[in-house]
């Protein structure tokens, strides 16, 4: 596809998202990945593992990390590094420090996401979303607008029911403040047991099934490099669609619910075909942006503003 065609399709997909958002913004759930936090100085997954090798590993060198990732994937690489470190306290302390913003505490994109959506889920471990909430509350504290108030969820107990009752931030893969990190292969086997046909804690998978089936997910800053997540998502999506086909075959008057999930993606011509295949397999509609963050923020700006609790009061347009 040409860049113009990609842009046209992205605008069409954005309009579909906007229609769903305008119908009920609470049912649109932003799903934030590492890309949304990297401008604050938080490392990508690959850089995190390379820094771990530099600072803590006894035998594994940082130059070897990329080859290990290519051969074994991210979770297995994290397991090998952790085994090489052989010190749980050092390992956790390193991770806690790595998930502290070093450039800025938050970004205008995250602030927009917080204002415009009811609840947020993320696979990140850092505090950039909390910092955005603090910034919003500080800026508008003297303007008579009721402060944003959130509940926080983290492993091992997650509840999708809470998402609509009150604003929630859900840390799917752990949270720095609670010193929980879903990172190694052993962690993934524990929390994605169906991927490994093994026993484990099912709360994460149950939560994901609920939001995949019942809400419109909006992926932002998500690279889709997490094989465990993508495998689980694909299997869940296929099962949901199979059930819907059976219902439609046997109940003619049943109104079909469409499977609608979206992803804001930085356009990369070299990786376009590969990424499109992944997104098509997952049933996710891509909305590509062509500048680093300016175009993404333009899209966020176009979403209808979220109303706050106080009567006739809204946050100023962002």
Description of the molecule:
- By secondary structure, this protein is α/β, with parallel strands linked by helices.
- It is built from 14 helices and 9 strands.
- Strands 3-4-2-1-7-8-9 form a 7-stranded parallel beta sheet. Strands 5-6 form a two-stranded antiparallel ribbon.
- Helix 4 packs across helix 9.
In the sheet with the most strands, the strands line up as: 3-4-2-1-7-8-9
Radius of gyration using CA atoms only:
20 Å
Q: What's the number of extended β-strand segments?
A: 9
Largest sheet: 7 strands, parallel
Distance between the termini: 32 Å
What is the general shape? globular
**What's the overall average pLDDT, rounded?**
90
Strand content: 5-15%
Percent helix, as a range, is 40-55%
Topology as H/E string?
HEHHHHHEHEHEEEHHHEHEHEH
Q: Quickly give the structural class.
A: alpha/beta
What are the low-pLDDT stretches, counting only 5+ consecutive residues below 50? none
Number of helical regions? 14
Characteristic terms for this protein:
seven-stranded parallel beta sheet, alpha/beta, single chain, globular, 318 residues, 14 helices, two-stranded antiparallel ribbon
Could you give the topology of this structure?
Blueprint: H1 3-23, E1 28-32, H2 45-55, H3 62-72, H4 74-85, H5 88-98, H6 108-116, E2 120-122, H7 128-139, E3 151-154, H8 162-165, E4 168-171, E5 174-175, E6 180-181, H9 185-191, H10 193-196, H11 203-214, E7 216-220, H12 227-250, E8 261-266, H13 272-282, E9 284-289, H14 294-302
Parallel strand pairs: 1-2, 1-7, 2-4, 3-4, 7-8, 8-9
Antiparallel strand pairs: 5-6
Helix pairs in contact: 2-3, 2-4, 3-4, 4-9, 6-7, 6-14, 11-12
């Amino acid at each position: 596809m040409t860049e113009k065609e990609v842009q046209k399709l992205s605008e069409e997909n954005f309009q579909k998202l906007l229609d769903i958002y305008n119908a009920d913004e609470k049912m649109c759930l932003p799903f934030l990945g590492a890309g949304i936090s990297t401008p604050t100085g938080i490392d990508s997954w690959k850089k995190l593992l390379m820094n771990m090798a530099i600072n803590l590993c006894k035998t594994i060198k940082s130059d070897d990390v990329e080859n290990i990732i290519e051969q074994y994937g991210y979770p297995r690489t994290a397991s090998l590094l952790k085994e090489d470190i052989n010190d749980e306290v050092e390992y956790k302390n390193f991770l806690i420090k790595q998930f502290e913003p070093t450039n800025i505490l938050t970004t205008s994109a995250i602030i927009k996401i917080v204002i415009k959506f009811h609840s947020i889920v993320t696979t990140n471990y850092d505090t950039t979303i909390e910092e955005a909430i603090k910034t919003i509350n500080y800026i508008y504290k003297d303007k008579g607008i009721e402060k944003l108030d959130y509940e926080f969820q983290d492993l091992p107990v997650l509840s999708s029911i809470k998402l609509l009752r009150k604003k929630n931030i859900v840390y799917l893969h752990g949270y720095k403040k609670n010193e929980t990190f879903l990172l190694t292969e052993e962690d993934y086997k524990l929390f994605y047991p169906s991927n490994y046909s093994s026993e484990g804690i099912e709360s994460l998978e149950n939560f994901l099934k609920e939001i995949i089936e019942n809400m419109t997910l909006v992926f932002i800053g998500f690279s889709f490099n997490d094989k465990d997540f993508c495998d689980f998502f694909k299997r869940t999506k296929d099962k949901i669609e199979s059930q819907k086909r059976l219902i439609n075959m046997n109940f003619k008057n049943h109104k079909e619910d469409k499977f609608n999930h979206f992803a804001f993606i930085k356009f990369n011509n070299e990786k376009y075909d590969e990424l499109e295949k992944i997104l098509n397999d997952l049933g996710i509609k891509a909305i590509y942006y062509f500048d680093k963050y300016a175009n993404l923020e333009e899209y966020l700006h176009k979403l209808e503003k979220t109303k706050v609790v106080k009567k006739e009061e809204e946050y100023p347009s962002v």
